[in-house]
Design goal:
Length: 413
């Protein structure tokens, strides 16, 4: 009897990989500690961010570090109690801020993102997802004149890279988003970006398609140990059950580092950026399309369940309690951008752990019968369908559509 392929991690990365392989005739078992499309995948901004091609940190961030340590509600917060554990990761991140490394990362992110929305559309030809994918662009808005002053040059730089981008002067903003306050200073419109209006429906539809194709989904299986042998991998969960397969694909996001250490395949500079959102169920139609605040680093996305305000970065580790004041603080920031205050009745806060590497690039790699797909930072949803195609190519010994050398695990030493 042929042993199945185990996919550990049922977020959007693992789910799309499992479906792609199962459809190609690979017997797959998708295993998750909670439920499929839970965790960070359930609470993201719903934005297919083809325009987000920059590292998560730069030299300007470093200059602001002292202030960040003492502002619990700022766009980027570092819990001072977590700082000693964060230092090695932070040093690796700083080493990636040199101009040469910054440009390398910028290009590597662009190469992943430029086909990311099209990959979702290819997936939607095989699974009924089209009604949830809206390719209507995103508008990035500047509230300050200082920020707005550089937008025209930034648009030109984006176009030189090959990214569709339009500079929107202050007087034309209302043509793109009538709900915007009149004091907003300018914007950038990215027509090729998209958003997903119902993440839960995406998860259900993909899971149903996986099962219909013969895939096995095992939820509430918290894996604590992985044993590698000549005939494959055995995963042991907290309930005493074992799950065996000939091949293992690791898609465990922010929780991947201990498994990499167990497997002895290398090192990884990985930490978690805790992200927050605030869901406003009584605001289903305020915005035409996703709206991003350049000055305050958050996104507003219209969804079937209401308007989602999402963003901020917090370094505090995987186990610290959530600080939901960070989620609620998104509401006054959003109201500053709009003509009328948002309806905050029944507002629901959320926090999740994004997986971020020190160079902002995911790990997409293969070591014999072990495949790796994690570390997609803010871009897990954006890059999921394309990552599934790349992993499928690696699995079947085909040439991937991209040069995967920037995403190899070995780059961490």
């Amino acid at each position: 009897m042929t042993q199945p392929t185990l996919i550990l991690g049922g977020g959007i990365i693992g789910l799309t990989i499992a479906y792609n392989l199962q459809q190609r005739g690979v017997a797959t078992v998708l295993i998750d500690a909670d439920t499929v499309l839970g965790g960070a995948s359930s609470g993201n901004a719903g934005h297919l961010a083809a325009e987000y091609n920059y590292p998560v940190a730069n030299l300007a961030t470093l200059a602001r570090l002292p202030a960040l340590l003492f502002n619990p509600l700022g766009p980027l917060r570092i819990d001072w109690r977590y700082l000693p554990r964060l230092l090695p990761f932070g040093c690796r991140m700083i080493a990636n801020m040199t101009p040469a490394r910054y440009q390398h990362i910028h290009r590597a992110l662009y190469n992943l993102n430029r086909d990311s929305v099209a990959a979702w559309e290819r997936l939607a030809t095989r699974v009924p997802l089209r009604q949830y994918i809206h390719r209507d662009g995103i508008l990035h808005v500047a509230s300050s004149t200082k920020t707005a002053a550089g937008l025209a040059d930034q648009a030109a730089q984006n176009r030189a890279l090959g990214l569709a981008c339009e500079y929107i002067p202050r007087g034309a903003l209302a043509d793109y988003e009538p709900a915007l306050a009149e004091d907003q200073q300018g914007g950038l419109y990215y027509p090729e970006s998209a958003h997903i209006s119902d993440l839960a429906a995406i998860g259900r539809t993909l899971a149903d398609a996986l099962r219909a194709a013969g895939g096995d989904i095992r939820e509430h299986c918290s894996i604590r140990h992985i044993h590698r042998s000549e005939d494959g991998y055995t995963l042991h969960d907290d309930a005493g059950n074992s799950h065996h397969g000939a091949t293992l694909i690791l898609c465990t996001g922010a929780y991947s580092k201990p498994f990499i250490q167990q497997l002895g395949v290398g090192k990884v500079a990985l930490d978690t950026e805790r992200g927050y959102h605030l869901m406003l169920p009584h605001e289903p139609s305020r915005l035409r399309r996703p709206l991003s605040s350049i000055d305050h680093s958050f996104v507003m996305t219209p969804m079937a369940q209401g308007l989602r305000l999402a963003g901020t970065v917090e370094y505090a580790g995987l186990s610290a309690p959530a600080n939901m004041a960070r989620a609620h603080n998104l509401l006054p920031l959003a109201n500053r951008l709009l003509r009328r205050p948002l309806d905050e009745r029944d507002a629901a806060p959320w926090m999740g752990c994004r997986p971020t590497t020190a160079d902002s690039l995911p790990v997409i790699d293969r070591w014999d019968r072990l495949l790796l797909a994690f570390g997609h930072q803010h871009l897990g949803l954006t890059q999921a369908a394309l990552t599934a195609e790349l992993i499928s190519a690696l699995y079947h010994d085909e040439t991937p559509a991209l040069d995967l050398s920037p995403y190899r695990l070995a780059r961490f030493g």
